[in-house]
């Protein structure tokens, strides 16, 4: 493989000024005996030009998207649709152009960047301006419907409020059911557009050489697309026994609370009783299922309230954690431009997100609630920002991304795994560390958040892969969704659903077309990262008692991986961190080993499974 010497970098720069042929005297000579074809130098020039083109529009696209997400109106939707139309057109043309170099032997970076260009888009449009425009309109409309939370008759719901009802153990079964059903009144109107979106994006994906859009999504993981799906299943197989134990215990406790008529002892759990709108993480029902131990686990929401933390203080505390690891503070513009509190006078897309609008402009947008759940989400979001800054400052345009999308989702969560009693004591949120008997409830709370999530993280894209490849046809969207929910999560719809319901549309990432396997990966990887960083931080106790707070060594190790961006395969990036390139659930299982033991004793005599 050839290295990029300064000399051929200069040659490439000259190439960009126009006269392509003049840049390749050697090739020109060869052309006399061989028919002309693209050369390695062409490929390098192509990549360099693509990086310039992509960089040129990046900030403008980001500004448009920011304004749209912060002021959801007809006008900002239209502006966003226009911008995404242009971005998709460029993305498709760059991907098609990159294919011309398929047969060439190229240096590592040029080949890698061409592959990144070929699979860069999430929803490619066909090379047809009308279809591209139609796709862009559909996607920005779907996004806006979710943000507004209104039915097509303009009856509107506040997702934050409805979620609050599901999270509140004192609310009745009926109140929870109403909240659950109400939010799902928003999605029926998405169904037709979603189907059309699938058709257009599939046509676009085929034009780029992928079997369908799902195959495109699975191709982004430095391994054959089919192998990736198998890898996900393999890791799920590792976690499944622990999940089943947790489901079994939670079901038994909910059965005690609500009775046989509401929660059966043997079947799937009704989805409205698990503390979360999508039954994706169950930490909010902790009280209902907690082990009764001598010492109580710390109630972080209660502590944040007692210390009167404001939204901005919650963010500052999260930033402090990263600073304790050796990261520089976020720039002043982060504090000036971010959105922390839901505005009362306009519609914003409240689903939390982290943004880089340029190499110096980082923001989050979040409707922060002053509770433990959002305190963790803030760390999640800042993880994105610190990752973005680390690679933006080191890497060229096409490598300004995470090793794979699961890595991006894992960084803030990794840091948040260190939010335990020893850390809370260090920052003064608690005065005393509870004795060891509080470990079990602590682990239960973590499992309700992390283990409960794993099958949900798997099924969202299993559903979409099926939708994109036609195994789940448009007249069976909802049936297919609930089949997966039951099979993998052991969760069922609490009331009869019809195809009109289109329940997947009530989850942000579906109308938003954000691939979801990333969160599954993140839930596995964050424990691998945590285990490794704890070792470096010199922690010797059990994993759940380790906090890497203040460890510059751990921070340096983390930063070394973040700085790589996408310049190496994710397996190589993982290796720099853990010494092995394999994704592996042994860390998450290690972490929860004491809980697994406890669950086994609790479940003895219960009939598990569903
Ligand atoms: O969407 C998110 C983040 C933004 S990337 C808040 N998460 C997933 C979700 O809410 O469904 C984090 C965990 C899973
Ligand atoms: Zn995220």
From TrEMBL:
<dbReference type="GO" id="GO:0016020">
    <property type="term" value="C:membrane"/>
</dbReference>
<feature type="binding site">
    <location>
        <position position="380"/>
    </location>
    <ligand>
        <name>Zn(2+) 1</name>
    </ligand>
</feature>
<feature type="binding site">
    <location>
        <position position="380"/>
    </location>
    <ligand>
        <name>Zn(2+) 2</name>
    </ligand>
</feature>
<feature type="disulfide bond">
    <location>
        <begin position="534"/>
        <end position="546"/>
    </location>
</feature>
<dbReference type="GO" id="GO:0008237">
    <property type="term" value="F:metallopeptidase activity"/>
</dbReference>
<protein>
    <submittedName>
        <fullName>M2 family metallopeptidase</fullName>
    </submittedName>
</protein>
<feature type="active site" description="Proton acceptor 1">
    <location>
        <position position="381"/>
    </location>
</feature>
<feature type="disulfide bond">
    <location>
        <begin position="150"/>
        <end position="156"/>
    </location>
</feature>
<feature type="active site" description="Proton donor 2">
    <location>
        <position position="509"/>
    </location>
</feature>
<keyword id="KW-0862">Zinc</keyword>
<feature type="binding site">
    <location>
        <position position="518"/>
    </location>
    <ligand>
        <name>chloride</name>
    </ligand>
</feature>
<feature type="disulfide bond">
    <location>
        <begin position="350"/>
        <end position="367"/>
    </location>
</feature>
<dbReference type="GO" id="GO:0006508">
    <property type="term" value="P:proteolysis"/>
</dbReference>
<feature type="binding site">
    <location>
        <position position="409"/>
    </location>
    <ligand>
        <name>Zn(2+) 2</name>
    </ligand>
</feature>
<dbReference type="Pfam" id="PF01401">
    <property type="entry name" value="Peptidase_M2"/>
</dbReference>
<feature type="binding site">
    <location>
        <position position="384"/>
    </location>
    <ligand>
        <name>Zn(2+) 1</name>
    </ligand>
</feature>
<feature type="signal peptide">
    <location>
        <begin position="1"/>
        <end position="21"/>
    </location>
</feature>
<feature type="active site" description="Proton acceptor 2">
    <location>
        <position position="381"/>
    </location>
</feature>
<feature type="active site" description="Proton donor 1">
    <location>
        <position position="509"/>
    </location>
</feature>
<feature type="binding site">
    <location>
        <position position="409"/>
    </location>
    <ligand>
        <name>Zn(2+) 1</name>
    </ligand>
</feature>
<dbReference type="InterPro" id="IPR001548">
    <property type="entry name" value="Peptidase_M2"/>
</dbReference>
<keyword id="KW-0325">Glycoprotein</keyword>
<dbReference type="GO" id="GO:0008241">
    <property type="term" value="F:peptidyl-dipeptidase activity"/>
</dbReference>
<keyword id="KW-1015">Disulfide bond</keyword>
<feature type="binding site">
    <location>
        <position position="384"/>
    </location>
    <ligand>
        <name>Zn(2+) 2</name>
    </ligand>
</feature>
<keyword id="KW-0479">Metal-binding</keyword>
<feature type="binding site">
    <location>
        <position position="221"/>
    </location>
    <ligand>
        <name>chloride</name>
    </ligand>
</feature>
<keyword id="KW-0732">Signal</keyword>
């Amino acid at each position: 493989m050839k290295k990029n010497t300064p000399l051929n970098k200069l040659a490439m720069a000259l190439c960009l000024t126009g006269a392509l042929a003049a840049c390749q005297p050697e090739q020109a000579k060869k052309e006399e005996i061989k028919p002309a074809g693209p050369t390695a130098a062409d490929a390098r020039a192509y990549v360099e030009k693509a990086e310039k083109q992509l960089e040129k529009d990046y900030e403008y696209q980001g500004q448009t998207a920011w304004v749209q997400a912060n002021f959801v109106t007809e006008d900002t939707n239209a502006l966003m649709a226009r911008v995404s139309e242009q971005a998709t057109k460029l993305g498709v043309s760059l991907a098609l152009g990159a294919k011309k170099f398929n047969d060439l032997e190229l240096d590592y970076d040029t080949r890698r960047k061409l592959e990144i260009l070929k699979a860069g888009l999430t929803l490619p449009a066909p090379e047809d301006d009308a279809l591209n425009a139609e796709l862009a309109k559909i996607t920005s409309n779907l996004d806006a419907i979710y943000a507004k939370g209104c039915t097509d008759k303009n009856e509107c719901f506040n997702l934050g409020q409805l979620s609050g009802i599901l999270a509140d153990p004192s609310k009745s079964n009926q109140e929870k059911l109403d909240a659950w059903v109400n939010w799902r009144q928003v999605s029926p109107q998405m169904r037709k557009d979603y189907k059309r979106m699938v058709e257009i994006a599939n046509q676009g994906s085929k034009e780029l050489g992928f079997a369908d859009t799902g195959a495109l999504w699975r191709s982004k993981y430095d391994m054959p697309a089919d192998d990736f799906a198998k890898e996900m299943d393999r890791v799920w197989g590792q976690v499944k026994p622990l999940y089943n134990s947790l489901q079994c215990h939670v079901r038994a406790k909910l059965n005690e609370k609500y009775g046989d008529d509401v929660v059966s002892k043997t079947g799937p759990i009704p989805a409205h009783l698990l503390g979360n709108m999508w039954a994706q993480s169950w930490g909010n029902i902790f009280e209902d299922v907690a082990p009764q131990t001598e010492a109580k686990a710390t109630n972080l929401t209660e502590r944040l309230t007692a210390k009167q933390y404001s939204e901005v203080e919650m963010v500052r505390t999260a930033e402090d954690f990263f600073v304790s690891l050796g990261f520089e503070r976020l720039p002043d513009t982060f504090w000036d431009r971010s959105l922390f509190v839901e505005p009362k006078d306009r519609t914003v897309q409240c689903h939390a997100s982290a943004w880089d609008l340029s190499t110096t402009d980082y923001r989050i947008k979040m409707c922060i609630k002053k509770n433990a759940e959002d305190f963790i989400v803030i760390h999640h979001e800042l993880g994105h920002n610190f990752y973005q800054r680390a690679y933006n400052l080191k890497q060229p345009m096409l490598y300004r991304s995470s090793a794979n999308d699961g890595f991006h989702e894992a960084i803030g969560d990794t840091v948040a795994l260190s939010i335990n009693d020893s850390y809370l004591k260090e920052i003064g949120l608690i005065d005393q560390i509870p004795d060891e008997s509080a470990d079990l409830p602590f682990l239960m709370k973590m499992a309700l958040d992390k283990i409960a999530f794993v099958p949900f993280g798997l099924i969202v894209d299993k559903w979409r892969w099926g939708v994109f490849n036609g195994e789940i046809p448009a007249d069976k969207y909802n049936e297919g969704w609930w089949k997966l929910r039951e099979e993998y999560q052991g969760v069922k719809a609490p009331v009869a659903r019809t195809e009109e319901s289109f329940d997947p549309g009530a989850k942000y990432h579906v109308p938003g077309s954000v691939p979801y396997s990333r969160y599954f990966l993140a839930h596995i990887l964050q424990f691998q990262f945590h285990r490794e960083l704890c070792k470096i931080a010199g922690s010797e106790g059990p994993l759940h008692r380790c906090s890497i707070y203040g460890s510059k060594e751990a921070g340096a190790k983390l930063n070394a991986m973040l700085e790589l961006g996408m310049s190496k395969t994710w397996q190589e990036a993982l290796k720099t961190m853990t010494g092995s390139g394999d994704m592996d659930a042994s860390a998450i299982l290690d972490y929860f080993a004491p809980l697994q033991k406890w669950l086994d004793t609790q479940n003895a005599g219960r009939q598990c499974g569903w």
